[in-house]
Design brief:
- The protein is an all-alpha fold and 184 residues long.
- The protein has 2 domains: 53 residues, no CATH class; 124 residues, Hypothetical protein, domain 2 (Endonuclease III, domain 1), CATH 1.10.340.
- It is globular, with a radius of gyration of 16 Å.
Amino acid sequence: MEKPKTYCQYVNTLARDNVHKIYHDTQYGFPIYSDDELFGRLVLEINQAGLSWTTILNKQENFRNAFSNWNIKKIAGYKEKDINRLLSDAGIIRNKLKINAVIHNANEVLKLQKEHGSFKNWLNKQHPKKKEEWIKLFKKTFKFTGGEITNEFLVSSGYLKGAHEEACSVYKKALKQKPMWTKK
C-alpha cells in the first residue's frame, strides 16, 4: 500500500476512534468562535513544538484541565505556585519555557481583547494576510510562535486554507462552517 501523502489520506487509514481521525473530522480546519478555545488551540500548538501531534492529541484533555479550561484571564494571572503545579503535572508537557510563554501569551490576548473586543475580532481584522505576514505578526505579538506553530494554528482554526483537500469527505463539512480563508 502506498504511503498517504496528506493528513486527509492518512486519517482515512485509521479507526474511527483514533485521536487523529476524531480531530481531523471534527476540529481541524473548522472555525473556532470562543476566545478561550482559540487560545487553547494556540496552547496545544505551542506545546507540540519538538513533539508529535499524537502526543498532544492524547494529552489535550489533560492540558485543558491543567490550564483552567483555557480560561485566558485565569491563565494570565498564574503565579509561581501555578507554574510549579504545571511543572509537576505528568499529564501535560512539562516545559518551563513553554509554560511561561503560555502565561505571557494569555496576557497579550487580554490586551487584544481590550483593544478589539475579542481575540477572534483581532484575528478577523488581520484577514486576509498571507502566511508570511501572519508569521511576522505572531512573532511580534506572542512568544514561542514560529512559522510552523503559527501556520498550524491558523490552518487548524480556519484562517488559512489547507486543512483538507477538496476530495476529503470533511472538506464540504468544514466549508459549511465558513472558515475565514473562504472570505475575501
